[in-house]
């Protein structure tokens, strides 16, 4: 039933998208972030909806190009984005793993087509609000779902993202939610409907809970930074402070003990307690069990969800159900991945290793004796794959985007009509800051959303500047005539003398 409903919905909008390319852009954005076809179970699951919608949108742009002002706002961030895209093509041609790099480049260039379509189609306030709403619904849906799942399960299971998406694993899911939470807050500030505000506030809190339920330590770090940044950037900081102070301690206490142990790095003390409490025979049995597969751990259940005293049964569950707490090599793995990235960049400083350089063969070459690891950082990922040159271009692009947000804030400071633009720019900045913070420990350098936010900041700056430029011709004659009038009065006075 879901398959048929989705198919009918999409093909009902295709004729509309042919004559209104912005409708195609919204549909394209929805499929890119939400992957609604992955929520079905039949023929629609693997149907190429995204490809069809993208093709319809591009055809619509070409058909209606004479009716619309389709110009890319070439400001510094968009110039650097274009340069970085061309640079990734160059590095792909010289990649160490060229076949895998070409597959990744194909995916990356499709993202840039979506960004390009956004740059030429979004013009008005209504269009800005609609694209933010679609992005928020698409990713926020999984935040609400994950938050409810965390509450229902008592936080005993990790929240994951949708299948076959950029944020399918728990760490990537946490990062995507951190970037979406500021957009939810922005929409809350823009609506006057009480029921809609309640829904958005509930989505805001559930998304917070979903980040905690992801068990991502990088996500929790980003959540802390996000909370402080929101308090600094928003006008309703007092209300937000009340919400955080009243709800966050309760949510924190709600999470089970093994979540606290994972976040607080208290495994050493837990092991000591276990050694003191357990007989030697049980220790031997437990040590033997530690070597078994993760599936065998599903037979254990916790004795308490919020017990502060670490008892034997809870520790046994903690050790059996979360192997990462027992053999937590994630920190060492991250350092290995970062050393590998630096070694690749030092050996190939201009072009780097290209997309998908994190291969065992490359590790054997640049960091012998170490098992292959993922990048575990957006910064080191770009450094290894695009070299120092590509990393500089990428970093400059992000810095210039933040500067665009500052310029928007400065231009709209005393203009009530552009207050929405000022608030949107602030939340887009917060979203990027969350990405930069959580991205220190998470490798999602080519995720769609950061590039989309950069494009939205550029578009917003162009919109604000155009809005202000329209006012200058209206104000200039009045100022000029007043100046001429003052000169005329002075001249008249001198003649009379």
Structure report:
The chain has 497 residues and is mainly α. The protein has three domains: 70 residues, no CATH class; 216 residues, no CATH class; 69 residues, no CATH class. It has 20 helices and no strands. It is globular and about 60 Å long.
Q: In short, what is this structure?
A:
The protein is mainly α and 497 residues long.
Number of domains: 3
Helix content: over 70%
* Computed structural class: mainly alpha
Globular, elongated, flat, extended or rod-shaped: what is the shape? globular
**What's the story with the biggest beta sheet?**
none
Task: Summarize this structure as a short list of keywords or feature phrases.
mainly alpha; disordered C terminus; single chain; 20 helices; 497 residues; 3 domains
